[in-house]
Amino acid sequence: MTRFGILSFFAVLLLFAAEGCSDSGDSFRGFPCRLKGGEKWNLLSMKGEVIAGECSAHRPTPVSCGRFWAQNDNGYWQLYSVVSPEKPLIEKEYRYVSNFYDNRALVAERDKPVSVIDRDGKVTLELDKIEGKIPGKFINIADGMAVYTVDSLQGVVSFDGRQVLPAEYPAVNMPSCGRIIVSDRNHEAFNASAPSGAPESVAIVFDYSGRECFRISSRVYGRMAENFTAGYLPVATVAGEKESWGLLDETGRQAVAPDSINRAITDIAGNNYVFMNDGGLFGLRSLIDGSVVLEPRFSSARFLDEAHLAVSESDSTAGGNERYSIIDLKGERAVKRTFLALSPVFSGNLFACIDEGRWVIMDPEGEMRSDLPEIEDVFYSTEEPSSFLTSDYIDIDRLIRGTGMSPVGTFGMTFGSSAKDLLDRQAEELDFIAPPVAANYGNTDEINFFPTVEGEMVAVTVNFPAALSHPVFTPGRIIDYLWGTFPKANGPGTLTEYEFTDETPSRFTVMFNNYGKLRGKLRRLYGALTEHFSAFGKVAASNSGATLIDLGNGRYALVAIEDNSVKAVWGLLPEADRSLHPYEGNQEKLKVIFAEQTFGYGGEVK
């Protein structure tokens, strides 16, 4: 631990006991930083205090409710407390996690469904089913709620288990400002790319209790923002290609009438809003009387607080690093210097990047915290650690049963199936495959399918002993002749057409990868597949990475584990394909994507 990381147990305890975890869900009390000369990440408070020194080799999350998450070397999340950041609070590993809100977090523990835990890691709520339905993914997590999916429909559930909205809607936006916007199946009508004459779409706005507040018709407002900002929803009327933006308040009342001056409304704070003009430049207008507070001259603008904005007057397309200024509502510089990046304001202060590798903590007036450690890098995004959450549990036996693998075939296909029938089926199941024409299949002997079983995509390959189609010639003899200096040989006749082969499949391959719920479970799957096929025959050979089973009638099954997948191949296998040597010593290699690899400056998504 560096000298900056030495902070007494009681100081940390008092800091978080005093600030606690607010019910507003925006109480982030520490942020990941790298200090000069250090290789690990630290957590700094907005007062510049090191509350966890060199706590993780991989970037942790911001601190919420006195807790933070950090990934281990295998890419799994573990829970930490700021009181004792030197080791995980509990030994459990998690595949997906959210920030804490009101002392609760949404998680998917390794090999388990999604659940809600408290600050100590204790499960307070299982979410393997919601109102009797099995959820797919949890997305748009905010304010202690999450949008969940059931098949193609969406609903909202709170961290205390209350179903705010049932899974009956085609699309549900992220909760914000006490409001949730849901859309119907015609929601594309609100998009700029919607064709003229598109069917009407009606969006419904609910409050957090699930009560309907008002509705928005695409016939009235042809464009709509996804979320409320500071209690207002930007909406626009459309005339041809021109959009005029205004604002609705939380009751649906028109707070700002659509105005052709407003080609977009991008931020709102206090009594003002940021607007964009025809030229793509940003300025400031009053919510009260519509007057222009600041003429549009900025290439970007956003509020830091009600009295200050972060703006850029440079052309971001000109190349180089864009720099930002802090101005007041009169357009005057509140801080003389410019910055490479400015974070939002947290607890009255913000992170500012003066130059690459040099960060400070200051207030919007430019007063910097004194006695700061030298900060080289900061992550200030408060977006969820995981962009979505889904169950990490899978029933491997049920997965295998769902494939229908047997000595005679899989997924309803058998060794007696015809190439034409299987190609027709492929075209029906895969939108990008055209109906089969025999002339297109003279150079391949395989057909591929990608069914989904237990939520996991499975790759299936059906191989034939020869090409799927062959040419048909009319009887006759072609006379030798010269084409330039190249002689043409005698032929059997004239090519008239192609026809599909009469051969039937020679082998099937079913492959499972570890990108989804099978991550970390390939060895277990390999064992279950070996047991499954062993029931159909006799084990002929095995090593640490593969097993060969004699199925009789000259057919074999090979089950093998590879770096990121497990496969089962069975049928008439050539001798070379029955060799186990290539798989000796194989074991699953976890594909690890660490959170820090997906962000740029201060938490801006790359």
Structure write-up:
By secondary structure, this protein is mainly β. It has four helices and 48 strands. The N terminus is likely disordered.
How is the topology of this model organized?
Elements: H1 9-19, E1 28-35, E2 41-44, E3 50-56, E4 63-64, E5 67-71, E6 77-81, E7 94-97, E8 104-109, E9 114-118, E10 123-126, E11 137-142, E12 145-150, E13 153-158, E14 163-169, E15 171-172, E16 179-183, E17 202-207, E18 212-217, E19 223-224, E20 233-239, E21 242-248, E22 254-259, E23 264-269, E24 272-276, E25 282-286, E26 292-298, E27 300-305, E28 308-312, E29 325-328, E30 341-342, E31 350-355, E32 358-362, E33 375-378, E34 389-390, H2 396-403, E35 409-410, E36 413-414, H3 419-429, E37 446-449, E38 452-453, E39 456-463, E40 469-475, E41 481-483, E42 486-488, E43 493-500, E44 507-513, H4 522-534, E45 538-542, E46 546-552, E47 555-561, E48 565-571
Antiparallel strand pairs: 1-2, 1-4, 1-33, 2-3, 5-6, 7-8, 8-9, 9-10, 11-12, 11-34, 12-13, 13-14, 15-16, 16-17, 17-18, 19-20, 20-21, 21-22, 23-24, 24-25, 25-26, 27-28, 28-29, 30-31, 31-32, 35-36, 37-39, 38-39, 39-44, 40-43, 41-42, 44-48, 45-46, 46-47, 47-48
Features:
7% helix, single chain, 5-stranded antiparallel sheet, 48 strands, mainly beta
Annotation field: number of helices? 4
State Rg: 31 Å
Shape: globular
What's the count of strands? 48
Helix amount = under 10%
Query: Which range does the strand content fall in?
Result: 35-45%
Runs in which pLDDT lies below 50 for 5 or more consecutive residues are 1-26, 481-490
The structure class reads mainly beta
First-last Cα distance: 31 Å
Biggest sheet: strands, sense, closure?
8 strands, antiparallel
- What's the average pLDDT? 89
